[in-house]
Amino acid sequence: xxxxxxxxxxxxxxxxxxxxxxxxxxxxxxxxxxxxxxxxxxxxxxxxxxxxxxxxxxxxxxxxxxxxxxxxxxxxxxxxxxxxxxxxxxxxxxxxxxxxxxxxxxxxxxxxxxxxxxxxxxxxxxxxxxxxxxxxxxxxxxxxxxxxxxxxxxxxxxxxxxxxxxxxxxxxxxxxxxxxxxxxxxxxxxxxxxxxxxxxxxxxxxx
Length: 207
Description:
Layout: E1 3-8, H1 14-22, E2 29-36, H2 42-49, E3 54-56, H3 59-64, H4 66-74, E4 79-82, H5 91-96, E5 101-105, H6 120-128, E6 133-140, E7 150-157, H7 164-187, H8 191-197, E8 204-205
Parallel strand pairs: 1-2, 1-4, 2-3, 4-5
Antiparallel strand pairs: 5-6, 6-7, 7-8
Helix pairs in contact: 1-7, 6-7
């Protein structure tokens, strides 16, 4: 039986689309559910286009968890991926999917993380700070924003004439390139071998 992913997303879902497409014909892994806290999120259209079940949750249900927990069990979800999901994860879900839930953050944590640091806010802060490099961080999820153990980081250069928008494009390229592959290797328990296969000048191997 294939291992199944639930993707949690709040927005347009560009990372979700890449993940869905990556695992569409995978022999061992598939996307089994899309979850959003935003009834108008573009990610719901992506789920519909790919004939995937999708649900919208409210804040109270998310905190209490009964209905969502039932949905995750009903769809036999083995692994949760946060792909632009903006709510803090409650304790019950962290416990239920300990070491089986990852988030992607658009900076090199611990820099530019925490509450309110998402999307363009991060890239604006990177530019304002005069950073010479930025990148992505994939990490396990705990009960704090952007605080779980880091699995993978890779970086790109921030040029003097870059703007938050050009930085965003560079970071998004990294997200689309690496996020599905890291998910795959985590789920197949091959992450250490995966590290060895990546270009060493563009990787922080943190396991």
